[in-house]
TrEMBL record:
Entry keywords, A to Z: Iron, Metal-binding, Oxidoreductase
Pfam families linked to this entry: 2OG-FeII_Oxy, DIOX_N
Annotated Gene3D superfamilies: B-lactam Antibiotic, Isopenicillin N Synthase, Chain
UniProt name for this protein: Fe2OG dioxygenase domain-containing protein
Source organism: Nyssa sinensis
Highest taxon of source: Eukaryota
Length: 365
């Protein structure tokens, strides 16, 4: 069966996974069927504590005793070095707000396709409704519908893409984005502290930080062994905040020691991951990690993602304090806007985008 052509401007019925689901067909269109090497092995990972991603108690960083603070900072450092991921509990964001953002996101995805198509994702952009990172007609598609918006600074917003339905969508997203922005700012202070740097290092360096939100909806899939919900990738951000919908199936997986490890949702926790930007700034000490999403045969899944990154005007490179004989400079200096452009104009392919910043050496593979 020949691949079905797609224009990223408008997701038609044939490439919209919710519409495919409604058709109740057990046949997965070729456009979604992964090559053998890419298919998810749905075997269970051993239930061992070594496969549990670290959990950070944010309240201990904010108002814990001296010992609790140092213990949590140490745990944060290990999380960033060895995992690139951690879950945050007691993060301070109102739980009612977490429920509200989930509700309006789900209400949006449940709108008729014609309504959602009023907010199309144009090619080469990552705002609007559709499939991001699609650049060729034979490229495999993810079993996922996305809706993404630029939040801060205001000039990156496209007002035409902010939906009028559900009626309170914009108001709730604004409030949610303010809260997650504050969380990212605080987290970066503690991450700087864990590196032995001044706590305001990142804030002073980033300028007016860029923030975007993306909502991902993964309908049930009749053949989860053939598809991916989201292709393996690392994030181009400094930090990413992920809210996993209540009652979700386990869909998020991270690559740890060449094993895809599922991230078990903790009620009311937020999943944080280090983006490529922090890997570059820390000269590889803290790592962005490949992650992907898999689908479920029975359950749907919703996630709400916040990306937090430096201003596009900022020039970035490894911080001198973190470059030495034992850890020579691994990345060149570059303009963050150029890197962002590179990131959104390529398909998701593991950590390939980071090659843009790597210093190539003769013995590098």
């Amino acid at each position: 069966m020949a691949p079905v052509p797609i224009s990223p401007i408008k997701v038609g019925h044939i490439n919209d996974v919710q519409e495919l689901r409604k058709a109740k067909s057990m046949v997965i269109p070729q456009r979604f069927v992964r090559d053998m090497a890419e298919r998810p092995t749905l075997a269970r990972v051993p239930k061992s504590s070594s496969y549990n991603i670290p959990v950070i108690d944010f309240s201990k960083l904010l108002k814990g005793s001296k010992d609790e603070f140092h213990s949590e900072i140490s745990k944060l450092s290990t999380s960033c070095e060895e995992w690139g991921f951690f879950q945050v509990i007691n993060h301070g964001i109102d739980l009612g707000l977490l429920e509200s953002i989930e509700k309006v996101a789900m209400d949006f995805f449940m709108l008729p396709l014609e309504e959602k198509q009023k907010y199309p994702m144009a090619p080469g952009t990552v705002q609007g409704y559709g499939q991001a990172f699609v650049f060729s007609e034979d490229q495999k598609l993810d079993w996922c519908n996305m809706f993404a918006l630029g939040i801060e600074p205001h000039f990156i917003r496209n007002p035409k893409l902010w939906p009028t339905k559900p009626a309170n969508f914009s108001e709730i997203l604004e409030e949610y984005s303010r809260e997650t922005r504050e969380l990212c700012q605080k987290l970066l202070k503690f991450i700087a502290t864990s590196l032995g740097l001044n706590q305001d290092t990142f804030e002073e360096m980033f300028g007016v930080a860029v923030q975007a939100a993306r909502m991902n909806y993964y309908p049930p899939c009749p053949r989860p062994d053939l598809v991916l919900g989201l292709s393996p990738h690392s994030d181009g951000s400094a930090l990413t905040v992920l809210q996993q919908g209540k009652g979700n199936s386990v869909g998020l997986q991270i690559l740890k020691d060449n094993t895809w490890v599922p991230v078990q949702p903790i009620p009311n926790a937020l999943v944080i991951n280090i983006g490529d930007t922090i890997e570059v700034l820390t000269n590889g000490q803290y790592k962005s990690v490949e992650h992907r999403a898999v689908t479920d045969k029975e359950k749907d899944r919703l996630s709400i993602v916040t990306f937090y990154a430096p201003s596009y005007e900022i020039e970035l490179g490894p911080m001198p304090e973190l470059v030495n004989e034992n850890n020579p400079c691994k990345y060149r200096r570059y303009n963050h806007g150029e890197y962002s452009k590179q990131y959104v104009s390529n398909k998701l392919q593991g950590k390939k985008t980071l090659d843009f910043a790597k210093i190539q050496t003769n013995n590098s593979s």
